[in-house]
Amino acid sequence: LIPLAPYTLLPSSSALFFSVTLSLLSLCILGFINARLSRTSIWHHAPRMFILGGSVALSGVLLGRFLKSLT
Question: What number of H helices and E strands is found in the chain?
Fold first, then answer.
């Protein structure tokens, strides 16, 4: 729901930026929560979640563009 929220409130030209920003911020917050619950380093989990989640999102966008170019 977080990545879709900006598209309901903003024009599509600026919604993409806010969607990506909110998604990556949410991943950092989830990494922070994960670190707190597991009592491990915040500086390890938050960036890890940011990088892993961000790379998965980027892979999805690239795959979507590739599949769109096939049609």
Answer: 3, 0
